[in-house]
């Protein structure tokens, strides 16, 4: 956190129509996510990663809504 790793400042459009600003700090989560994505590059081909990303977006929309 001291070096800004894992700090994100975002403005979200909420489902109910209002905007919300959030500042999140997750240095450990950011490092783990980047490591996981790097491992996926070695173990999955381009098409499988594209399908996984699309399913992840759809799943997160369903959970959020």
Automatic annotation (TrEMBL):
<dbReference type="InterPro" id="IPR048268">
    <property type="entry name" value="Arginosuc_syn_C"/>
</dbReference>
<feature type="domain" description="Arginosuccinate synthase C-terminal">
    <location>
        <begin position="1"/>
        <end position="65"/>
    </location>
</feature>
<keyword id="KW-0067">ATP-binding</keyword>
<dbReference type="InterPro" id="IPR024074">
    <property type="entry name" value="AS_cat/multimer_dom_body"/>
</dbReference>
<keyword id="KW-0436">Ligase</keyword>
<dbReference type="Pfam" id="PF20979">
    <property type="entry name" value="Arginosuc_syn_C"/>
</dbReference>
<comment type="pathway">
    <text>Amino-acid biosynthesis; L-arginine biosynthesis; L-arginine from L-ornithine and carbamoyl phosphate: step 2/3.</text>
</comment>
<protein>
    <recommendedName>
        <fullName>argininosuccinate synthase</fullName>
        <ecNumber>6.3.4.5</ecNumber>
    </recommendedName>
</protein>
<keyword id="KW-0547">Nucleotide-binding</keyword>
<keyword id="KW-0055">Arginine biosynthesis</keyword>
<dbReference type="InterPro" id="IPR001518">
    <property type="entry name" value="Arginosuc_synth"/>
</dbReference>
<keyword id="KW-0028">Amino-acid biosynthesis</keyword>
């Amino acid at each position: 956190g001291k070096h800004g790793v894992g700090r994100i400042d975002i403005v979200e459009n909420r489902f109910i129509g209002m905007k919300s600003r959030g500042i999140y700090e997750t240095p450990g989560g950011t490092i783990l996510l980047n490591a996981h994505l790097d491992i996926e590059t070695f173990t999955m081909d381009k098409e499988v990663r594209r399908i996984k990303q699309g399913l992840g977006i759809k799943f997160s929309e369903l959970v959020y809504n």
